[in-house]
Amino acid sequence: FDCEGSVWKDRNGYPRIRIKIHKAECILGNGKNFLLSLKCMLNLFGIETTEIWTITGYEKNGTKTKGLCLGVKTKSFNNFLKHINFRIKEKRKRMKDIMGSTMWDKPGFEGLHKVVR
Question: In angstroms, rounded to a whole number, what is the distance separating the alpha carbons of residues 26 and 28?
């Protein structure tokens, strides 16, 4: 998750963890298979994920690409931190800031613990 993963708050202030890879349309199936494998592996650690979704992009040479995305469900953030986490300092800090924020008091986030390494 360090290179292709990201952590942020969306425009509504909700935390998000996502992995995104871009592939040329002709090899899109390889990327989808990779994310499906990752989804299964994360599930072994009790980390629930979203369905895979796509976004469109372009390489500098004009080749059309598709971004394949997979998100970690908010209720699985604790397991993500416990078993995976980020090794990049800035992403760990961002995760710590999100996990320590008052947004956990919002409806739907009850019972989530503030686990930070």
Answer: 6
- Are 22 and 34 spatial neighbours (Cβ–Cβ below 8 Å)? no
Q: Could you tell me the residue ranges of all domains in the chain?
A: 5-105
Question: Letter for the amino acid at 38?
Answer: L
User: Is residue 100 a contact partner of residue 116, using CB atoms and an 8 Å limit?
Assistant: yes
What would the pLDDT profile of 56-97 be if each residue is shown by its tens digit? 888 888 888 888 999 999 889 888 888 888 888 888 888 878
Q: How far apart are CA 69 and CA 84, in angstroms?
A: 18
Residue 116 belongs to what H/E stretch?
Answer: none
In whole angstroms, what is the distance from residue 15 CA to residue 74 CA? Answer: 7
Residue 95 φ then ψ, to 5°: -65, -45
**What percent helix, strand, coil does the chain show, rounded to 5?**
40, 25, 35
Task: Tell me the fold of 5-105.
Answer: Endonuclease I-creI (3.10.28)
